[in-house]
């Protein structure tokens, strides 16, 4: 689980417990400088740090060694989707699928939208071309949750991505605010979201 740029892994305890109840093994971690992980100087105007991808790569390598015969996926949200993309580029065949919400497909667009919406200046840690290369290197099934009221990573972005990608890419659109997918749908909290993940993972060959 690669979470957004706010909070820490404790914010997703209930999400994790629901996934565990569905038979998934869930591994959470904190990026350096978050939660109780090692200290790391963080500037609030930095879009993300490449070091966070290094942290996820280390987690991915560990999980692959511990569960060598299991299908491993990454669930990335907002900034976490960037970190997931960068990590998968290095993890290669160790990751079998990707689930994302608030999926970042273009750094400059995201930066412009955040600056306009929040009135702040944002620093990109790498050039657009570098992130595009990482995006284009993805070669695995992807499930994308897209909120109707998401002005930072709108549905139009992921539709363009799907049209240009060679991956098996599915988009689940829902009515609601950005990163509110777990709150959407009928029934118990998270049931809509988990049902979509279950349908998606059931299609991935064992």
From TrEMBL:
It comes from the Bacteria. Residues 18-100 form the Serine aminopeptidase S33 domain. InterPro entries: AB_hydrolase_fold, Hydrolase_4. Pfam families: Hydrolase_4. Transmembrane segments: none annotated. Coiled coil: none annotated. This is Lysophospholipase.
